[in-house]
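Researcher: Following up on the earlier apo prediction. This time include the ligand. It's zinc ion, with the SMILES given after the sequence.
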Amino acid sequence: MHEYSIIQSLVDSVESVASQHTGGTVHHIYVDIGELAGVDCDLLQTAYETFRFGTICQDVPLTIDRIEARWECPHCHIVISRGAVLRCPACNEPARLAAGGEIILNRVEMEVA
Ligand SMILES: [Zn+2]
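Model: Understood. Below is the ligand-bound prediction.
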Protein backbone atom coordinates (compact mmCIF):
# COMPACT_ATOMS: atom_id res chain seq x y z
CA MET A 1 0.00 0.00 0.00
CA HIS A 2 1.21 3.47 -0.97
CA GLU A 3 0.63 4.97 2.48
CA TYR A 4 2.72 2.28 4.16
CA SER A 5 5.73 2.94 1.94
CA ILE A 6 5.40 6.65 2.72
CA ILE A 7 5.43 5.89 6.44
CA GLN A 8 8.40 3.56 5.97
CA SER A 9 10.47 6.31 4.38
CA LEU A 10 9.16 8.84 6.89
CA VAL A 11 10.38 6.73 9.80
CA ASP A 12 13.71 6.18 7.98
CA SER A 13 14.11 9.96 7.65
CA VAL A 14 13.31 10.53 11.31
CA GLU A 15 15.87 7.86 12.25
CA SER A 16 18.52 9.51 10.15
CA VAL A 17 17.77 12.93 11.66
CA ALA A 18 17.91 11.41 15.14
CA SER A 19 21.18 9.61 14.41
CA GLN A 20 22.79 13.00 13.75
CA HIS A 21 21.91 13.95 17.32
CA THR A 22 22.95 10.95 19.36
CA GLY A 23 21.02 10.61 22.60
CA GLY A 24 18.32 13.02 21.48
CA THR A 25 14.65 12.31 21.96
CA VAL A 26 12.11 12.84 19.20
CA HIS A 27 8.93 14.49 20.50
CA HIS A 28 6.76 15.21 17.51
CA ILE A 29 6.89 14.94 13.74
CA TYR A 30 5.04 17.00 11.16
CA VAL A 31 4.42 16.14 7.52
CA ASP A 32 2.95 18.18 4.70
CA ILE A 33 0.73 16.30 2.29
CA GLY A 34 -0.44 18.07 -0.83
CA GLU A 35 -4.07 17.56 -1.75
CA LEU A 36 -2.98 16.28 -5.17
CA ALA A 37 -0.28 13.98 -3.82
CA GLY A 38 -2.64 11.02 -4.04
CA VAL A 39 -2.35 10.27 -0.35
CA ASP A 40 -5.27 9.41 1.90
CA CYS A 41 -4.44 11.23 5.15
CA ASP A 42 -6.67 9.02 7.31
CA LEU A 43 -5.03 5.96 5.87
CA LEU A 44 -1.63 7.55 6.38
CA GLN A 45 -2.40 8.16 10.05
CA THR A 46 -3.60 4.57 10.42
CA ALA A 47 -0.48 3.29 8.68
CA TYR A 48 1.63 5.30 11.10
CA GLU A 49 -0.19 3.95 14.15
CA THR A 50 0.46 0.42 12.91
CA PHE A 51 4.00 0.87 11.71
CA ARG A 52 5.56 2.93 14.47
CA PHE A 53 5.74 0.19 17.12
CA GLY A 54 9.30 -0.89 17.67
CA THR A 55 10.68 2.09 15.77
CA ILE A 56 12.12 5.36 16.98
CA CYS A 57 8.63 6.83 16.41
CA GLN A 58 6.87 4.50 18.83
CA ASP A 59 5.81 7.26 21.24
CA VAL A 60 5.98 10.14 18.82
CA PRO A 61 2.78 11.86 17.65
CA LEU A 62 2.42 12.58 13.96
CA THR A 63 0.70 15.71 12.71
CA ILE A 64 -0.38 15.74 9.08
CA ASP A 65 -0.87 19.12 7.43
CA ARG A 66 -2.90 19.14 4.26
CA ILE A 67 -1.52 21.56 1.65
CA GLU A 68 -4.00 23.09 -0.78
CA ALA A 69 -3.22 22.86 -4.46
CA ARG A 70 -1.95 26.08 -6.01
CA TRP A 71 -1.39 26.59 -9.71
CA GLU A 72 0.63 29.35 -11.27
CA CYS A 73 1.99 30.47 -14.61
CA PRO A 74 5.60 29.28 -15.12
CA HIS A 75 6.40 32.57 -16.89
CA CYS A 76 4.51 35.37 -15.12
CA HIS A 77 4.09 33.53 -11.80
CA ILE A 78 0.49 34.68 -11.70
CA VAL A 79 -1.47 32.47 -9.33
CA ILE A 80 -4.41 30.83 -11.08
CA SER A 81 -7.55 30.97 -8.96
CA ARG A 82 -9.09 27.79 -7.67
CA GLY A 83 -11.53 26.26 -10.10
CA ALA A 84 -10.39 28.49 -12.98
CA VAL A 85 -9.14 27.20 -16.34
CA LEU A 86 -5.56 25.99 -15.81
CA ARG A 87 -4.03 28.53 -18.17
CA CYS A 88 -2.43 31.88 -17.51
CA PRO A 89 -4.94 34.72 -17.99
CA ALA A 90 -2.09 36.96 -19.21
CA CYS A 91 -0.03 34.79 -21.58
CA ASN A 92 -2.20 31.67 -21.98
CA GLU A 93 0.65 29.39 -20.90
CA PRO A 94 -0.53 26.13 -19.26
CA ALA A 95 -0.44 26.49 -15.50
CA ARG A 96 2.12 24.65 -13.42
CA LEU A 97 1.43 23.05 -10.05
CA ALA A 98 3.23 25.26 -7.52
CA ALA A 99 1.98 23.52 -4.38
CA GLY A 100 -0.24 20.61 -3.51
CA GLY A 101 1.75 17.70 -4.96
CA GLU A 102 4.21 17.38 -2.12
CA ILE A 103 4.89 14.71 0.47
CA ILE A 104 7.33 16.33 2.87
CA LEU A 105 8.68 15.60 6.30
CA ASN A 106 8.30 19.20 7.39
CA ARG A 107 9.59 19.24 10.93
CA VAL A 108 11.05 16.93 13.56
CA GLU A 109 10.83 18.26 17.09
CA MET A 110 13.49 16.79 19.28
CA GLU A 111 15.28 17.34 22.49
CA VAL A 112 19.01 17.11 22.13
CA ALA A 113 20.92 15.69 25.04
ZN1 LIG B 1 1.64 33.83 -17.86
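Model: Residues 1-18+38-64 form one domain.
Researcher: Noted. I'll compare it with the apo version next.
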